Amino acid sequence: MPETIAPRLYLDVDGCICPFGRPDAAWGAAASTSVFVEYGDRAATYDVVWAPALIEALDRLRAEFALELVWLTTWVEVDAVRRLLVPKLGGLANGRILPLTPGPRSSGEARGWWKAQRLLEDQAAQAGPFIWTDDSEVELHGWKVLNATSGTPSLMIPPHPMVGLRPDDIHAMRAWLNALKSGPEASTISGLQHDR
After folding, report:
1. Cα–Cα–Cα angle for 104, 11, 143, rounded to 5 degrees
2. Are strands 31-38 and 43-50 parallel, antiparallel or unpaired?
3. Is there a contact between 161 and 138 (Cβ–Cβ < 8 Å)?
4. DSSP per residue over 144-177, as a string?
5. Cα–Cα distance, 76 to 98 (Å, whole number)
6. Rounded CA separation 31/50 (Å)
């Protein structure tokens, strides 16, 4: 019997768990803080806002479905996401990171392609069911990822960057993970959510 691969959650920070505006009001209270990041030759302070209830909901999904958290965000530079942001969020600990390698864009290459490349490399190393949520790159590159991972169950969610992930997005993840758990017929479950 083949080894079961745990589903992965490829997760962005800005516009997903930390929106550019305020989190969806359905989450209840929001929290905010500033994060100071030293990069060696430069430093920056980032003001972030998030919904603690969203972080809790993602952690519940991780626990219930053995969902592997994989950070796919510019916050992986100097591991700022795990070292500096996660302790402030109060959850989403112990995720794996995929390296930030945006590099110069080649002629005609859309921004953010590096994230799709890292995801595809990760899938090539060990294919497994996945959720990818990113406020801009899913819309730009999700169809390329779907084509390249054809046959691998996937769910792609592009949240609105001003509010980030909504309760409906978590419900969609839960429904997809439950269908995946239900058996082999779930191997055809893939899609890009476009209800924004």
Report:
1. 65
2. antiparallel
3. no
4. HHHHHTTTS-EEEE--BTTTBS-HHHHHHHHHHH
5. 7
6. 5
- pLDDT tens digits, one per residue of 47-71: 999 999 999 999 999 999 999 999 9
Helical segments of 66-112, H only: 80, 86-89
Tokens standing for 100? 């930030």
Which domains occur in the chain, in start order? 8-192 (3.40.50)
Q: How far apart are CA 144 and CA 100, in angstroms?
A: 19
DSSP 40: S
HSE-CB at 113 with a 13 A cutoff on CA atoms is 10
Return the structure tokens found at 165: 């992930």
How many Å apart are CA 23 and CA 28, to the nearest integer? Answer: 9
Q: What is the DSSP string of 110-136?
A: PTTHHHHHHHHHHHHHS---EEEE-TT
Residue 10's CB: how many other CB atoms inside 10 A?
28
- DSSP tag of 14: B
Write down the pTM of the prediction.
0.90
**Could you tell me if 192 and 138 are in contact, meaning their C-beta atoms sit under 8 angstroms apart?**
yes
Whole-angstrom Cα distance, residue 29 to residue 24?
Answer: 10
pLDDT in tens, 117-174: 999 999 999 999 999 999 999 999 999 999 999 999 999 999 999 999 999 999 999 9
